[in-house]
Amino acid sequence: MSESVVCLLTFFAIVYVATCIDDKCAACNAVAEELELGLSSEKPRNHLDMRHSLDSKGQRKGRVIDYRVSELRVVELLDGLCEKMQDYTLEKVDSTGGRWIKVHDWDSLTTNRQEARAYSKDISSYCGRLLEEIEDELADLIKKGSVRTGNVSKVLCQDLGKHCNKASDPHQVDVNDHRLSHGEL
After folding, report:
1. How far is CA 124 from the centre of its chain?
2. Could you report the per-residue pLDDT of 69-83, keeping only the tens digit for each?
3. pTM for the full model?
4. To 5 degrees, how large is the angle CA 95–CA 161–CA 18?
5. For 115-143, how does the pLDDT look when each residue is reduced to its tens digit (9 = 90+)?
6. Are 28 and 162 in contact, with CB atoms under 8 Å apart?
7. Which of 24, 36, 14, 38 is nearest to 123 (CA)?
């Protein structure tokens, strides 16, 4: 009897860990919005000088890398992205819909703060799973210049993550389906 209870509790613990947001398209678009903010707020940077050693003639050896195609740029754009998603929560628009919004002041929030914080943790966890799944491809596209302000949502949510189709409304989510579901991403 106790063995079956332990198995059942283990099953529920695994299912709880594997939970995710039902409306992946809306959540993905919120992540894309935050990444787009990062892209639009980038300051121009000099090339990266990787010529740190000298050859036998005293000439610097190595190469100069354009910052726009560097791994450093990718790291700076993606590092901390999911932590920033903790500033987002689900705002109910009406009885059947809602949208992900960025919260600038949690104290002035008019909805249930505990529920709002739970949503922020959900979307932050979703972001982590999404990036884990597509990070290499996303990094390559950023380095190639294929991810630009204005097309982040398409690249992230349609092309790579495949969480949205062209007909999806990126800002609406069914309030009845916004919590967690079991299974995939």
Report:
1. 7
2. 788 888 999 999 999
3. 0.70
4. 70
5. 999 999 999 999 999 999 999 999 999 99
6. no
7. 24
